Amino acid sequence: MPRSLLSAPKSSILAPRIGTIETSMMRRVYLDNNATTPVLPEVLEAMRPYFGEHFGNASSIHHHGQETRAAVERARESVAALLGCRASEVVFTSGGTEADNLAIFGLTRSGDHVITSTIEHHAVLNACKHLAAKGCEVTYIPVDGRGLVDPADVKHAVRPNTKLITIMFANNETGVVQPVAEIGEIAAEADIYFHTDAVQAAGKIAIDVNKIGCDLLTISSHKFHGPQGVGALYVRKGTQLEPMLYGGSHERSRRAGTENVPGIVGLGKAAELAVAGFERGDDLKMAVARDHLERELLSIEATGLNGEGAPRVPNTTNIYFDSIAGEALVIALDLKGLAVSTGAACSSGAIEPSHVLLAMGLGPDRAKASIRFSLGKQNMAEDVDFALALIPETVSRLRDLSPVYRSVFSK
User: Fold this and answer.
1) What is the CATH number of domain 42-277?
2) Residue 386 predicted with pLDDT over 80
């Protein structure tokens, strides 16, 4: 059996116990928190009244409307505190994809030049692909073997017609944190808008939009223990953003549509809990748990860490297990009660290897043999031990079935 995580007590590493399901038949442990996280009990409790007695439309001027308007604005303040910005600079959206699209399409016109990277989430990559089809020019900055963008490459790519740089804060598959502050300086010097997709950074590492120097920044509630279907876009004061939705004057005429009050309240509470967590050092505790899992898994033969040597968010590790099909390992572990992932949830139906790992220089076979493990606040020390009790044996069994592994490693 693997060593217990720092002799930790049988209690949640970071928060009250949720998300691990005990049944008479099987225990289930969830280590796919970069796909989505369980809603924390405090978040659910904060949301509950806005499904019932506090039901008013936040645009109505009577008591019921003003009651919910106040809740929306309190949530806006909480999100602003998480990002280090003014509340008036927070635009609520339906999630990260809408926020990314609003940032990209809201600033660009035919003939503009956009700089992005080869490892972006498809919410950015596909938006840029659409821009190119509509007459924009797009430059894709490569990454090195650690998964890092070189700011010098960004600076070199700037043209007279460059309108926007959009580089993610933290990668959803590897957890690698990009040098966004350096890129922000480049954008400011060239008087270019800078957007960063911080969906996988928010709630995991501290964010200060002024230190980053970004003009726009995307977050999504369900990535840090809030509800699905709600997110936010930070829009720096003075940024002229064309809306994608036309209707009422909601969100200061930047995003039309009646506000999702329960979702926004949940996002605000999740942001509040994230700020409190940083003050307690939850991110450091998470890193300890992740590092323990990582060390044990890397002791297995023919494994390696994707993103080694780069700064990463504290909850994520991406490891390749040579001579195994990653999807086969995911399925085998799920049958034993452990949920992990081969990469981005939005691409889980794809049979192609990860574009992120290919961009980092991995061959197709190794990219397909890579697994993402991502922890959440609900995970316990014993959840990590549960995973470590299952994975080596499962890897060994699958490799026994692999003629490639037997031919290479049995000599």
Assistant:
1) 3.40.640.10
2) yes
Active site residue 214: no
- Alpha-carbon distance 402 to 242, whole Å? 54
User: In which order are the strands placed within the sheet that holds 370-374?
Assistant: 303-305, 316-321, 370-374
Mean pLDDT across the chain: 92
Q: Which one of the listed residues 128, 136, 214, 346 is annotated catalytic?
A: 346
Could you give the CA distance from residue 287 to residue 317 in angstroms, rounded to a whole number? 10
Give pLDDT tens digits for 42-85.
Answer: 999 999 999 999 999 998 999 999 999 999 999 999 999 999 99
Each as own residue / partner, the long-range contacts of residues 405-410 (CB below 8 Å, 24 or more positions apart, any chain) are 405/302, 405/322, 405/323, 405/324, 408/323, 409/301, 409/302, 409/323
Architecture of the domain whose range is 5-30+281-409: Alpha-Beta Complex (3.90)
> Which residues neighbour 262 within 8 Å (Cβ) at sequence distance 6 or greater?
47, 50, 51, 227
Kindly report, residue by residue over 168-188, the tens digit of the pLDDT: 999 999 999 999 999 999 999
